Amino acid sequence: MSLEKFINHAVSSWMKNEGPHSDIVLSSRIRLARNLENHQFPTVFSGDEAMKVVHEVGEALKRFPGMNENPLEMLLMNELQPLQKRVLVEKHLISPLLAEGTNYGAVFLSENEDISIMVNEEDHIRIQCLASGLQLKETLVKANQIDDLIEEKVPYAFDEKIGYLTSCPTNVGTGLRASVMVHLPALVMTQQMNQIIPAINQLGLVVRGIYGEGSQSVGNLFQISNQLTLGKSEEEIVNDLISVVSQIIDQERSAREALVKTNHIQLEDRIFRSYGVLANSRIIESKEAAQCLSDVRLGIDLGYINTISKNVLNELLILTQPGFLQQYAGASLRPEERDVRRATLIREKLRQEHGY
Description:
Blueprint: H1 3-8, E1 25-34, H2 47-62, E2 73-76, H3 82-90, H4 96-100, E3 106-109, E4 115-119, E5 125-132, H5 136-153, E6 158-159, E7 163-164, E8 176-183, H6 185-189, H7 193-202, E9 205-208, E10 221-226, H8 234-262, H9 264-280, H10 286-301, H11 310-319, H12 322-329, H13 335-353
Antiparallel strand pairs: 1-5, 1-8, 2-3, 3-4, 4-5, 6-7, 8-10, 9-10
Helix pairs in contact: 3-12, 9-10, 10-11, 12-13
Domain Phosphagen kinase C-terminal: 24-255
EC number: 2.7.14.1
InterPro entries: Arg_Kinase (IPR023660), ATP-guanido_PTrfase (IPR000749), ATP-guanido_PTrfase_AS (IPR022415), ATP-guanido_PTrfase_cat (IPR022414), Gln_synth/guanido_kin_cat_dom (IPR014746)
């Protein structure tokens, strides 16, 4: 493995699998926040102490069962260029905070990129596991296995009454952030999301954009996650999220059925107009591209389009981001240059899909 492998390929291996309810749920993520008991937290520690944390976590990971055959690759933030870090953020392999923070951070990545262990982000350790579709329970099992193996080697900051201690009070307790990425075009078209989001918030969950806190929804993609980590077990948090997401899945499917029944021609026209924009544009901004990709994805799910695979759409969703466009260009690009290159890339990918 190498840095080039992680930044040159837009689609992670796990993204090519179609998990349960993958027509609506693109991915499931489990993230565990942990700190080492014998070190100051990242908000106050020194550079020397930060590098000691990186070393200790790295030594612990070397002793993982089976890691000799499939070792995790370590990437040090101080060895990466800003553009390289941006690409890793666009692939959801590191957080914006780790990319924008000090140069004392690191990330350990599995070969298929379903495991990402960030070091010295807001906490000493952020264990992240990803899976296709709605697979929160399975992903939690994997994250807990990694968590237990690390804790055998390095003791965590833990309080018997409160639970795991973290830099941010909202993560104290389980330190668990469970989230799903969902595609909800029909609920947006029928303007039901305006009522759904406040209702979700009242249940102790939060709806964000695809890059988490502070990001906006693009292409009808939303990230739904738990807000509280204290007072509930990991299983309760995950089960509550699954229950709510399952209801949203049912609502999205009902909205899709209603659109097909009552606005069939208008819906089909919108989908194929969006496909036409993607296939023929010479200039396209990221927001328009994301919306058109959303429409085409819906067209595939509804059976209007059967000549394109969703894997290509997953690839284009990442490839058309600013970091990836510049990575492929091998140079910094102005916004208008990115818009031209984005359009060219989309046309080329769609032509390849059709075999010409």
